[in-house]
Specification:
Shape: globular
Number of domains: 2
Helix content: 25-40%
Number of helices: 7
CATH superfamily of the largest domain: Metallo-dependent phosphatases
CATH class of the largest domain: Alpha Beta
Radius of gyration: 21 Å
Structural class: alpha/beta
Largest sheet: 7 strands, mixed
Strand content: 15-25%
Length: 297
């Protein structure tokens, strides 16, 4: 072989090795096993979200097991439970099978679940018994707010039979009075979605002006049995975590950062200037990562 040919092939080999290394490092960064990490400097709050959980079937148990493993490696004490907590008709008599047993290890560790009502939850007595169930921490309220460190959460009733006039007056008042740096809203139904139900244009009209006006950084929901994370739309990221027990196909839209039909939950780490979030599957691997940056007003 001539020296020129040898050098050329050697260069190709180096390029190929570099590309292979880039591919492997990229793949590893997007799909890494959850592992225990030392406490991060400046971490204010760690929490997770999940929705459409209440089947009591193997899919729910698989996600619950992954949530428990994540807790063992990266402790948290808050779960946002974004509706359809009890299938198929919201019967509180099923609470042991669809909540207390699947999440027993988390509950024993003092992890607090903050729930809202989904469309299946209101099929029995309009969800009244769920509102009063201590483990869901709704305290009889269909919509409510609570604060953790520098984060204020707002739970909404997004069902069609909600008292929308009263709720929206309450919601804007609470937003206008909030001094929290981070404002996170959760409800059951999607606003932006590439899943089976798609974008709710009525909700876009109702909620997005309020989100923009009062600097809401994230909206968390279920209903779609999939995972989807949008880019910031007028400053708000829309996060679907509805694959907590079952899954359906999901597409992509122009504003989609990542979507997947993986059985999964979302994990969040809140800092003064950003929220780092991860999509985690039943294999305990991180399949998506994103950052929400604090925007100035």
């Amino acid at each position: 072989m001539k020296r020129r040919q040898f050098l050329f092939l050697g260069s190709l080999s180096s390029i190929g090795a570099g590309l292979l290394g880039w591919t492997l490092s990229r793949q590893t960064s997007l799909e890494t096993a959850v592992a225990a990490k030392p406490p991060k400097k400046g971490l204010l709050l760690r929490f997770v979200s999940v929705a459409d959980t209440g089947t009591g079937a193997k899919g729910q148990y698989a996600v619950a097991k992954a949530m428990t493993f994540y807790h063992q490696q990266n402790s948290y004490n808050l779960v946002i439970l974004a509706g359809d907590n009890i299938y198929n008709n919201g019967e509180i008599e099923k609470i042991g099978a669809v909540f207390e047993r699947p999440y027993q290890d988390l509950l024993k560790q003092g992890v607090k679940f903050q729930a809202c009502l989904g469309n299946h939850d209101i099929r029995t007595e309009n969800g009244e018994k769920q509102l009063r169930y201590a483990g869901f921490n709704m305290k009889g309220r269909r919509y409510y707010t609570f604060r953790r460190d520098k984060v204020q959460f707002f739970a909404l009733d997004t069902n069609g039979n909600a008292d929308w006039k009263k709720q929206l007056l309450w919601f804007e008042k609470e937003l206008s009075q909030s001094k929290a740096a981070w404002k996170i809203v959760f409800g059951h139904h999607p606003i932006y979605s590439s899943g089976q139900y798609g974008t709710n244009t009525s909700f876009v009209k109702t909620f997005t002006p309020l989100f923009k006006k009062y600097n809401v950084q994230a909206y968390i929901n279920g209903h779609e049995h999939d995972y989807e994370r949008t880019r910031a739309i007028d400053g708000t990221s829309y996060l679907i975590c509805g694959a907590g027990a079952g899954n359906r196909p999901v597409g992509r839209s122009e504003w989609t950062e990542f979507s997947s039909s993986n059985l999964s939950f979302m994990a969040y780490e809140v800092y003064a200037d950003r929220i780092e979030l991860s999509g985690i599957g039943t294999d305990n691997r991180v399949f998506d990562q994103g950052v929400i940056k604090l925007r100035s007003v």
